[in-house]
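In response to reviewer comment 3 from the previous cycle, which asked for concrete evidence that the modeling workflow produces usable outputs, we include below a single protein chain processed end to end. The sequence was submitted unchanged, and the resulting structure tokens are shown without manual editing.
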Amino acid sequence: STQSTGECKTESRRQTDLVEQLQIAASATKTLKVNLQEDLTSWKAKYEEARSECLQLYTAQTELQHDIERLQGELAARESLAGELATLKEEVLALQQTEEELRLEK
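The workflow returned the following structure tokens.
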């Protein structure tokens, strides 16, 4: 069955419309791919930035922990010295009292 000229024109128009729609779809797909790639790149950068900040915080926290431990050690040493000093003061007072008693006996 041969198609009439009108049918050929209609079919041709239909195919032309289809090709245009496919081109639009292809263009939209390409744009979407570019946008998704840009989003992915952006998210990767944000992830790396957040990861870097976490590492910096962890490092700072570790340094603070070391400082706290060092200061606790220094505090313990000073408390120990203060105790020794108090003992020495008591001994000095006892010696002074003994010295005074010996003076009074003479």
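The chain has a mean pLDDT of 94. We consider this sufficient to address the reviewer's concern, and the full set will be provided in the supplementary archive.
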